[in-house]
Amino acid sequence: MRQSIAWIRPQAEGIYLPEADAWIDPSVPVARAIVTHGHADHARGGHGSVLATAETLAIMETRYGPQNGQAIAYGETVRPGGMSVRFVPAGHVLGSAQIVLEQAGTRIVVSGDYKRRPDPTCAPFEPVPCDIFVTEATFALPIFRHPDTGSEIDRLLATLQANPDRCVLVGAYALGKAQRVIAELRARGHNAPIFIHGALQRLCDLYRQFGVDLGPLEPATGRVAADIRGHVVLAPPSALNDRWSRRLPDPVTAMASGWMRIRQRARQRNVELPLVISDHADWDELTGTLHEIAPGEVWITHGREDALAHWCAARQISARALDLAGREDEDD
Question: One MF term in GO for this entry (predicted)?
Answer without folding.
Answer: RNA endonuclease activity
